[in-house]
Design goal:
Length: about 425
């Protein structure tokens, strides 16, 4: 996107990533040194130094590592650089799930109640209804979460969730909210600018998950009513306007089988699954980010946003579903996923032939996206591309993804967050996903 706009790019890389695809894609590549995230991509000082040394104007944090770190955002600004994202104050406010839920309630966002826990003690007079969800106030990725089905499990669940949250995020704060059985995870893409304009770009459904990590994402959601869709989108815009939001953000919700809506959190960054929104809207979300960060007003109004067709994204990961989703490391021999033909799919990846998959980083190796007039057509295109893929040297979840895309309940849009637990039959297909 930057190159299309005539903007030169600088990229940073760790020692294991010296030959990574992104290093060859940027105009200038700067070595950070080290192998682990702490030694490389989490070194905000080194990233800022690289930007200054190359006379860069701005830093785009992507969607991992420091992308939702308010201290890093402030350091970027203090260094005289443009931060491509919301303000540090907005990152801080919305990065705390308790504070974000308070803001959502103030803005009139449809949601269920929240019970706060202070120093391990539940707020006086609070009544917990079951099943309940104990949840970390900081971080994400499913860490610091426990489902509680009876009162005698509550204290242990609070203690365990708090310990896990403290270890993962350095913050042991947790809270309680209702747990929606067989719910759907639906999120709304919002954009704001510093001139007070806010729009939504429709919703995405991300209900098919393993260990609270998304596997399949699509837009629009095929499992909610028009009334719920309107409530979600209107609520997301209301929250963004309430906090004066700038840049790209995602407001996440759970929708129960009875259409009950619970606000989850706000991701103050670009989402991994943003390509499905790009596909159905025809908009380049990174371009919008760059324009807003440069101080421009959003070039679109809500009336300009139209949703066309259906888009589905699957995450190809270096994991073996048939072995409990254990990570798979090693050197990729051949890496190819079908593209380049009429009705071809989009592949976003950071790997290529000969790439090394280590245990230091996330297991995601590619996002594969299909866009078609209907959901069933998009699923068929995507499955065909995956069946024709060649990924050797590591185990992947490709066979499982193909099985999901052709499974009857999936095609009928019966896809709650419990989908993988309820459909173990899609996992035996992974017996073929061994090293090739």
């Amino acid at each position: 996107t930057a190159h299309r706009l005539g903007i030169s790019t600088v990229g940073v890389y760790s020692e294991p990533d010296a030959n990574a695809l992104h290093v060859d894609s940027v105009d200038v590549a700067i070595a950070l040194g080290g192998a682990t995230p702490a030694e490389s991509y989490l070194r905000g000082d080194a990233i800022i130094a690289a930007a200054l040394a190359t006379s860069a104007d701005a830093i785009h944090p992507g969607y991992g590592f420091l992308a939702e770190n308010a201290a890093f955002a402030q350091a970027v600004i203090d260094a005289g650089l443009i931060w491509v994202g919301p303000t540090p104050e907005q990152v801080t406010l919305l990065g705390d799930k308790v504070a974000a839920k308070r803001a959502a309630l103030e803005a009139g966002v449809p949601t269920t109640s929240m019970i706060e826990i202070v120093d391990g003690v539940i707020a006086a007079g609070a009544t917990v209804s079951y099943p309940a969800l104990v949840k970390a106030a900081a971080g994400g990725g499913g860490r610091g979460m426990r489902v509680v089905r009876s009162a005698d499990e509550l204290d242990d669940a609070v203690a365990a969730a708090s310990r896990e949250a403290l270890a993962a995020f350095g913050d042991g704060a947790v809270f309680i909210e209702p747990f929606l059985e067989r719910g759907r995870h639906v999120e709304v893409q919002v954009f704001g600018d510093r001139h007070g304009n806010v729009v939504h770009l429709g919703e995405r459904e991300c209900s098919i998950q393993r260990r609270n990590q998304k596997v399949v994402e699509e837009s629009p959601s095929a499992g909610i009513t028009p009334e719920v869709r309107a409530a979600l989108c209107e609520g997301a815009v209301a929250l963004a306007k309430h906090v004066g939001y700038e840049g790209a953000g995602t407001v996440e919700f759970m929708v129960g089988a009875d259409q009950t809506i619970t606000f989850l959190e706000v991701n103050t960054r670009l989402q991994v699954e943003h390509p499905v929104t790009e596909a159905v809207t025809g908009l380049d979300l990174v371009e919008l980010q760059l324009r807003v960060a440069a101080g421009e007003a959003l070039p679109i109004t809500q009336r300009d946003v139209t949703i066309t067709g259906h888009a589905i994204e699957v995450r190809v990961v270096a994991e073996d579903p048939a072995a409990g989703w254990m990570p798979s490391t090693g050197r990729i021999g051949r890496f190819a996923i079908g593209t380049g033909e009429p009705g071809g799919v989009r592949v976003d990846t950071g790997v290529r032939d000969g790439a090394e998959i280590s245990s230091d980083y996330d297991s995601l190796v590619a996002k594969v996206i299909a866009h078609a007039p209907t959901r069933v057509e998009a699923a068929g295109q995507l499955a065909r591309a995956l069946r024709g893929s060649q990924i050797t040297g590591i185990r992947t979840n490709v066979d499982s993804l193909v099985a999901i895309l052709g499974e009857a309940d999936y095609l009928a849009a019966d896809t709650p967050t419990a989908y993988l637990d309820e459909h173990p039959d899609v996992l035996p297909f992974c017996a073929g996903s061994h090293v090739r």
